[in-house]
């Protein structure tokens, strides 16, 4: 079983829809990163959180440390949100990032 | 403030050769970490350097090595290239390496093709 599981793997949405991407992990962590990768490779860090909830514009990230689960929400989705979203917990014992397989999101106009 | 710069952007090498990739972090960042991304394995952690010392290492063979200079710029080297080393290599800089309150800033990557 992978240490990090993301769901769904692929997601197609209509512009304006509310989107949720889930991440479950099995290791102890000190922080969890949500990353966005557009075609061409560049990765942008969206959030880093170790508890609770963070909001940035239309994006919201939550984490439940006890349940080892995090979610990324996109409100009022837009075609420019089309990208791969990657959950990356930072292992508390290993002190290194481990990566989910990513969620490929396509938002259609 | 300049972002993380990786050079070169693209590289084509043949099997058996060696390659050196460079990463210049954001000014003031002392941590540089390296990652390999392939279609089959996804993103994997290679190693992290902090203040010129390797602080952590992933599960890669000894052909993969790196170093960090006093100005925090980092290089990674792959010797005796294999076809399976074809990948996008990304580096990221941060104040404290992705732990606690230390976001990561990624470069655009170097796409290495081994023929």
Structural class of chain B: mainly beta
The description of the largest β-sheet of chain A is:
5 strands, antiparallel
Instruction: Summarize model confidence as the mean pLDDT of chain B.
Output: 93
Low-confidence stretches of chain B: none
Main sheet record of chain B: 7 strands, mixed
Unreliable spans of chain A:
none
Query: SSE order of chain A, as H and E?
Result: EEEEEEEEEE
Number of helices, where a helix is a run of at least 4 consecutive DSSP H or I residues of chain A: 0
Shape descriptor of chain B reads globular
State the order of secondary-structure elements of chain B, H for helix, E for strand: EEEEEEEEEEE
Classify the oligomer: heterodimer
The separation of the N and C termini of chain B measures 37 Å
- Contiguous helical run count of chain B: 0
**Rg of chain B computed from alpha carbons, rounded to a whole number of angstroms:** 13 Å
* Backbone CA Rg of chain A: 13 Å
Average pLDDT of chain A: 93
How is this structure best summarized?
Chain A is mainly β. Chain A contains no helices and ten strands.
Distinctive features:
heterodimer, A: 109 residues, B: 115 residues, mainly beta, seven-stranded mixed β-sheet, 11 strands, 52% strand
Overview of the structural elements:
The complex is a heterodimer of chains A (109) and B (115). Helices cover 0% and strands 59% of the residues of chain A. Chain A is built from no helices and 10 strands. Chain A has a 5-stranded antiparallel sheet with strand order 1-3-8-7-6, with no helix packed on it. In chain A, strands 2-10-9-4-5 form a 5-stranded mixed sheet, with no helix packed on it. In chain A, strand 4 and strand 5 form a beta hairpin. The mean pLDDT of chain A is 93. The radius of gyration of chain B is 13 Å and the shape is globular. The model of chain B has no long low-confidence stretch (mean pLDDT 93). Classes of the chains: A mainly beta (109), B mainly beta (115). Chain A binds chain B through residues 30-31, 33, 35, 40-45, 48, 50, 86, 88, 90, 94-99, 101-102, and chain B through 33, 35, 37, 42-45, 48, 55-56, 58, 88, 90, 92, 97-106, 108-109, 111.
């Amino acid at each position: 079983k992978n240490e990090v599981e993301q769901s769904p793997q692929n997601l197609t949405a209509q512009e304006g829809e509310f989107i949720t991407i889930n991440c479950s992990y099995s290791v102890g962590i000190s922080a969890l990163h949500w990353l966005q990768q557009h075609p061409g490779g560049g990765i942008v860090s969206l959030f880093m959180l170790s508890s609770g909830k963070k909001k940035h514009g239309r994006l919201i990230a939550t984490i439940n440390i006890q349940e080892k689960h995090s979610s990324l929400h996109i409100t009022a989705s837009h075609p420019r949100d089309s990208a791969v979203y990657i959950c990356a917990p930072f292992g508390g014992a290993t002190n290194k990032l481990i990566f989910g397989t990513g969620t490929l999101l396509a938002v259609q106009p | 403030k300049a972002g993380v710069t990786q050079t070169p952007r693209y590289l084509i090498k043949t099997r058996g050769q060696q390659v050196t990739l460079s990463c210049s972090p954001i000014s003031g960042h002392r941590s540089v970490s390296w990652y390999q991304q392939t279609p089959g394995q996804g993103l994997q952690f290679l190693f992290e350097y902090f203040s010129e010392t390797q602080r952590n290492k992933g599960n890669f063979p000894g052909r993969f090595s790196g170093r960090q200079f006093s100005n925090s710029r980092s290089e990674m080297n792959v010797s005796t290239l294999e076809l399976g080393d074809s990948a996008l290599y990304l580096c990221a800089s941060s104040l404290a390496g992705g732990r606690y309150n230390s976001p990561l800033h990624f470069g655009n990557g170097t796409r290495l093709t081994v023929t």
